[in-house]
Predict the structure.
Amino acid sequence: MAAAAGGTIKGRIKFTGAEPGNRVIRMGMDPMCAAVNRGKQVVNEIYAIGDDNTVGNVFVKVEGSFPATPIPSQPVEIDQRACVYTPRVVGARVGQTLRVKNSDNWLHNVHTDTSRRNAINQSTPKAGMDVSLPLKDEEMLRVGCDVHRWMTAWVGVVSHPYFAVSESKGGTYTIANVPAGHRTITAWHEAFGAVTKAVDVKDGQTSTVDFVYTQK
Amino acid sequence: MVAAACSSPNPAAPAAKTAAPAPDFRLTGTIKDIMDGVVDPSADYLWDSVSTIVTRKGVEERRPRTDEDWKNVRRRAIELIEAPNLLMMDGRKVAKPGEKSENPGIELGPEDIQQIIDGDRATFIQRAHALQDAGLKALAAIDKKDVDGLSDAGEAIDEACEQCHLKYWYPPDAEARLKAGAGSVRKQPSPQ
């Protein structure tokens, strides 16, 4: 029986050192945000830290160019809900569309911070509205809202399908069907930064690549 | 000048004041430079000076506590209040010649921004003063060591920043908001 084409890379992201904290968002500048979150302590979740010091919301991708594969026709979605973006970190393909919808019946705007051709700055004043951005270039794209400066999401835009985002609980990730070969894999976190490792991918086999960030 | 003073018909009248020479300002930085080097960092410092941090171990309240902390935050408030004076100086350009918008079509380019400012300088001055007013709120709170007041002033600073950005940096989005009935960023529809 022939081995399956491509292999799987999986792993877990952890950190060592003092646990970094998340800032509680002061929603008082917008009464609508304050009202919808009344009774909750909403944090700006830069660090999705789990038991055993695992780290979620890390964007992991294989570096390099690969043979063309179909680009998903479905957009990647981010929701503006209760004055935060959900999810905070997503991955998308070059050529795919990013759709940012508004579930809040008040004003948000979608403003990307880009050094490439992934620019948009457009308001969604009411619930049910959305903005769509065709993604043109690879980058870690920050999405923000000028009305609520705490709102942040990240889109890892990649030219191929070999990427994943680590789970908020458990810090694990899995990238399937990676073409066999000696590969470089990068883990990127918005505060911890990027770490790169090498891995040999073999057809039909699973390679484990764990990452550990050190918090000073 | 001396002869004129000696021949004054009314020796009791005060000597005529000579016009002060124009101040010899040497404008070096652009508005973009001042925003990047002074306004942004000082506003960030004020916003970050009062915060609540959550970890798995508990909650930490960060705020100015010592005299040195308050002195540092005061320095940044002064920067934020004085920076608009630099922005308003005659002859201050938006950007260096040839600089382009980083996101054309989404955000205006320096030449467009310059044109809007030059075409209605009174509004530009008004917006700069609004930032100073917000900074003065922060300064008043700092001088009273009023943590809540400092936090509230942060919201006023945020509002001043955004209103100015909508006018000069990305006005198409301001127009879109108005068309959609959102009006000002702080005048919002009721929740459903």
